[in-house]
Specification:
25 strands; disordered N terminus; Rossmann fold; single chain; 4 domains
């Protein structure tokens, strides 16, 4: 990090790129209140140009966050106006050797982090109004907003002065953990295992091996040399400095994620008795009670397509082969991409990404058919014509990264689940549970609703194919069926809404060109049908509230067929005996009316209704 910004960049994006490229500082976008835009916060900071461009294209006015501690080698002393006495007092001179950034309310004094000591974040421990930003923290890079900078370049930062370091050791630091003598056998076996492993493995695996060596060696130099010797054999090796930075970020303290030799060797014939599993969870607080008055301030349910597709984690749309489910999903996301109503429902315009694990040529034809019907315009969606494997953590993480780098997404369609999970047992809770977890992690990383296109089982009446837990995990489920040319989409589950809505459609052929033999090439577009085709509208049986309401509306004397809903209910209510304590007959009849409307047997407009 020996480069510095010589010329002030004109935009936040340019400043972020130059910090990453010239200074080697990973960055991430933050809101005006300094909270991170991206899941993971400072842990998601990156020097990757494509990812940074994607972030600041999405959030052009975002503040620039820079991690402190081992990730960057930076320590920041954050002084606000209440800390002026510390600056003017006996310790104030210690800050003069650092680099000073003016902030909105005070100053950041930057120093180079010591190698032998982990400086933790603290608030007010040095003095009132003086905070420390070290391990596990970050700062806003205020110079990007044109605020003053005084002092050396980033690559020439002075170390923390000895007297200030003694204060930090006393009040806000932790010495490196002593080397562990536990399980030298595990460390030796892990070192032997590395001879069989490719150092150009995935980044996740490479880090896990480093974490295991750190844990088993107690963070000693012997453990580091083992990791360094193995890593240096690969083409991805970036030098000792990069490895030191990662090594310092690993920890064996309670509450932080620990990877032991057992986790690495378990697949290579190590038994649980020889190497007990010591992998623990993250340090994020869990099970924290929230008062009811705060809980109700949570974001209410919002919609991509009102009453059909919620802004949520997971939506499953399924149907048998040939039902038209892929055409229907295309029609839905085209409406979302353009912000036009879908089947009379309000949509929220959003960014759409389609992951084509199969049928890329067919999707191309759908796009051409859409353009043919819309004066040559395309809907504005983005397509990934490559199949990920949702069983693998690396694939979903890379997918999320590429989506974010290309501008983010509000909905991600995966077509199909089966083609995106090769080798998975759809009936096994273990495999499907992992796929569902990765889909939800994809949602967390991108903020997008993930839509899985899936197949019906052999018995179509029993729903989607495979493990029943998929339906339980979904926020919404839509079934697509067909009888001849007429097709129906039914909302069979809506976790926080009213299910049962039906939408009727057919596929209209569209000629999109001529092939090399001179024959027409065709695809289809969805054509909505206003009511269920004859034969699909099943009337309720006699003796039910639904049948009584339907008969009353049919028989009511009306010139135009419209009947006042209160009048219709008053006509029917006397046909049913009054219950003992509380008269709920009218509520039951109102529910019957809504059920008739959902089945397309009647239509409702305001306070009136009529038979279709």
């Amino acid at each position: 990090m020996n480069a510095e910004l010589h010329k002030s960049p004109s935009t936040a994006l340019e400043h972020a790129l130059r910090l990453a490229q010239e200074c080697g500082l990973p960055v991430f976008p933050c809101r005006a209140d300094k909270s991170p835009f991206v899941p993971g916060g400072f842990k998601a900071a990156s020097t990757d140009e494509a990812l940074i461009r994607g972030w600041w294209t999405r959030w052009s006015d975002a503040l620039i966050g820079v991690p402190t501690g081992a990730t960057t080698g930076l320590i920041a002393i954050d002084v606000d106006p209440a800390g002026i006495e510390f600056v003017l007092g006996e310790h104030g001179g210690l800050l003069g050797t650092g680099r000073r950034h003016s902030t909105r309310r005070g100053w950041h004094h930057l120093f180079r982090a010591p190698d032998h000591l982990e400086i933790r974040c603290s608030t007010g421990k040095l003095a009132a109004g003086v905070d420390v930003r070290g391990e596990g923290g970050y700062i806003i890079w205020w110079p990007a907003l044109g605020l003053d900078v005084i002092g050396p370049a980033i690559g020439e930062l002075a170390p923390v002065p000895a007297a200030l370091l003694r204060l930090l050791e006393t009040r806000s630091s932790r010495s490196a953990p002593p080397p562990s003598t536990a399980n030298a056998v595990a460390l030796r076996r892990l070192a032997d295992e590395l001879d069989k492993r490719d150092p150009d493995c995935s980044y996740d695996e490479w880090c896990r091996i480093g974490m295991a060596l750190h844990h088993e060696s107690g963070g000693s130099e012997d453990g580091f040399r083992t990791w360094h010797k193995w890593s240096a054999k690969g083409t991805k090796y970036k030098g000792e400095f990069d490895l030191r930075r990662h090594w310092k970020s690993f920890s064996s303290e309670p509450g932080k994620k620990v990877v032991s030799a057992s986790n690495i060797l378990r697949d290579y014939a190590a038994t649980a008795d020889e190497f007990p599993n010591e992998e623990s969870g993250s340090n994020k607080p869990r099970f924290v009670p929230v008062p009811d008055h705060q809980f109700v301030e949570r974001q209410p349910l919002t919609w991509l397509i009102k009453g059909v597709v919620p802004k949520a984690e997971l939506v499953v749309l399924y149907g048998p082969s040939g039902s038209g489910k892929s055409f229907l999903v295309f029609d839905m996301i085209a409406a979302i991409a353009t912000g036009v109503p879908w089947q009379g429902r309000i949509t929220t315009k959003g960014r759409t990404v389609v992951v084509l694990a199969e049928g890329a040529s067919g999707f191309r034809n759908r796009l051409l058919a859409y353009a043919t019907m819309h004066s040559g315009s395309f809907p504005g969606m983005r397509i990934i014509a490559e199949a990920p494997n949702l069983l693998h953590e690396h694939d979903y993480a890379l997918l999320a990264q590429q989506i974010e780098a290309s501008g983010g997404a509000d909905v991600v369609v995966i077509d199909t689940l089966a083609a995106s999970s090769p080798g998975a047992d759809e009936n096994a809770a273990k495999d499907m549970g992992k796929i569902i977890e990765h889909c939800k992690e994809l949602h967390k990383a991108t903020g997008a609703t993930v839509v899985l296109i899936h197949h019906s089982g052999k018995d179509e009446s029993k729903g989607a194919r495979g493990w029943s837990g998929l339906r339980a995990a979904a926020d919404a489920e839509i079934e697509v069926s067909n009888k001849g040319d007429h097709r129906t989409a039914t909302v069979t589950k809506l976790k926080d809404g009213e299910d049962g809505a039906k939408f009727f459609f057919k596929l209209m052929p569209v000629e999109i060109g001529i092939d090399s033999d001179g024959d027409p090439v065709k695809s289809c577009v969805v054509e909505p049908l206003p009511v269920a085709p004859i034969g699909q509208r099943k009337e309720p049986p006699p003796g039910t509230t639904e049948r009584a309401m339907l008969d009353a509306i049919r028989d009511f004397p009306s010139i135009d067929g419209w009947v006042s809903i209160p009048t219709a209910i008053e006509t029917v209510v006397t046909q049913f005996p009054r219950p003992g304590r509380r008269d709920t007959r009218k509520q039951h009849l109102m529910r019957a009316l809504r059920a008739l409307a959902a089945k397309s047997l009647i239509c409702i407009e305001g306070e009136r209704c009529r038979v279709r």
